[in-house]
C-alpha cells in the first residue's frame, strides 16, 4: 500500500511537470513524457504486486485494483497526446483547453486509485469504493462517446445488437446488489466492460457508411440515454 501511494504521488508531480512543459522545447517535453511513462510503469508493477498479495480468494478486488491503474495509464496516454497537441499554442486555443481537461481527468483517476487502495483493507467500504470508481469510468467513456470525433473504425448494427446483451446481465447484477446491500454483490456490480463495449459498438455502428444521418443521430441519442439510465441505477445502488 505504501509503495502504491508513494509512486502515485510521484506520478502526480510528473504530470504537473508534463503540463508545465507544454510550452517548453520539444526536448524538455519529451523528457517530461518519458519520466511520466517510467513512473506509470512502476505504478502498474506495484499495483500488480498489491493485487497478487490479496490472494486468489478475492479475485473481484484484484480486478478493481487493476482497473484503477488501467484508468490512470489511459488518462496519462491521453494527457501526453494532449500536451503534444497543445505545444506552442496560444492560451485560448482549443488544444490548450483539451490539455487542461485531460489533466483534470488524470488527477481524478489518480485520486480514484488512491481511494481504492485505501478501501481494499476495509471490508465495509470495499464494494462502495469499487462502484464509485466504475461510475467515474463510465462518465469518462460517455464523454468520449458524446464527442464529435468519429470512431477509429466502423461496425455493423448486428455487432451492436450483440453487445447489448451484456447490459441486461449487468443491470440484473445491479438490481440484485441493491436488494441485498452486501459488499460482495456491490463489487460484482462494479463492472465497466458491458457499458463501455455498448458505447463503443453503438458509435461504430452509427458511423457505418450505410447508416443515414438521421438514424445515426437517433442511435447516438439512444446509446447515451441507455448509459445515463445505467449510471442512474448504479448511483441508486450506491445510495442504498
What are the SSEs and their pairings?
Blueprint: H1 2-20, H2 26-53, H3 59-86, H4 94-120, H5 126-146, H6 157-163, H7 165-180, H8 183-189, H9 193-206, H10 213-239
Helix pairs in contact: 1-2, 1-4, 2-3, 3-4, 3-5, 4-5, 5-8, 5-9, 5-10, 6-9, 7-8, 7-9, 7-10, 9-10
GO molecular function, one term: integrin binding
Domain Talin R4: 16-114
Protein name: Talin-1
What's the shape? flat
CATH architecture group name of the largest domain? Up-down Bundle
Low-confidence stretches: none
Rounded average pLDDT:
85
- Highest-level CATH class of the largest domain: Mainly Alpha
Distance between the termini: 29 Å
Major sheet size, sense and barrel closure = none
Question: Structural class per helix/strand content?
Answer: mainly alpha
Q: What is the H-and-E element order?
A: HHHHHHHHHH
Our estimate of the beta-strand percent is under 5%
> Helical content, roughly?
over 70%
CATH topology of the largest domain: A middle domain of Talin 1
Let me know the number of strands: 0
Number of domains: 2
Q: What integer value in Å does the Rg equal?
A: 19 Å
CATH superfamily of the largest domain: Talin, central domain
Number of helices: 10
What can you tell me about this protein's structure?
The chain is mainly α. It has 2 domains: about 120 residues, Talin, central domain (A middle domain of Talin 1, Up-down Bundle), CATH 1.20.1420; about 90 residues, Talin, central domain (A middle domain of Talin 1, Up-down Bundle), CATH 1.20.1420. It contains 10 helices and no strands. Helix 5 packs parallel to helix 8, helix 5 runs antiparallel to helix 10 and helix 7 packs parallel to helix 10. The longest helix has 28 residues.
Amino acid at each position: 500500500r505504501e509503495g502504491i501511494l508513494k509512486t502515485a504521488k510521484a506520478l502526480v508531480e510528473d504530470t504537473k511537470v508534463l503540463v508545465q512543459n507544454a510550452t517548453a522545447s520539444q526536448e524538455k517535453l519529451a523528457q517530461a513524457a518519458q519520466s511520466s511513462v517510467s513512473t506509470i510503469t512502476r505504478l502498474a508493477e506495484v499495483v500488480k504486486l498489491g493485487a497478487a498479495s490479496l490472494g486468489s480468494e478475492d479475485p473481484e478486488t484484484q480486478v478493481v485494483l487493476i482497473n484503477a491503474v488501467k484508468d490512470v495509464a489511459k488518462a496519462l496516454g491521453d494527457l501526453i497526446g494532449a500536451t503534444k497537441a497543445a505545444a506552442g499554442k496560444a492560451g485560448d486555443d482549443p488544444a490548450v483547453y483539451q490539455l487542461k481537461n485531460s489533466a483534470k481527468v488524470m488527477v481524478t483517476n489518480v485520486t480514484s486509485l488512491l481511494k481504492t487502495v485505501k478501501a481494499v483493507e476495509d471490508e465495509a467500504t470495499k464494494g462502495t469504493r469499487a462502484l464509485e470508481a466504475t461510475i467515474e469510468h463510465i462518465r469518462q467513456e460517455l464523454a468520449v462517446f458524446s464527442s464529435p470525433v468519429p470512431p477509429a473504425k466502423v461496425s455493423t448494427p448486428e455487432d451492436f445488437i450483440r453487445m447489448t446483451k451484456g447490459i441486461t446481465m449487468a443491470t440484473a447484477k445491479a438490481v440484485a446488489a441493491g436488494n441485498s446491500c452486501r459488499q460482495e454483490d456491490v463489487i460484482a456490480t462494479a463492472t465497466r466492460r458491458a457499458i463501455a463495449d455498448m458505447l463503443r459498438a453503438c458509435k461504430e455502428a452509427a458511423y457505418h457508411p450505410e447508416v443515414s444521418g438521421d438514424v445515426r443521430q437517433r442511435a447516438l441519442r439512444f446509446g447515451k440515454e441507455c448509459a445515463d439510465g445505467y449510471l442512474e441505477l448504479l448511483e441508486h445502488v450506491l445510495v442504498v
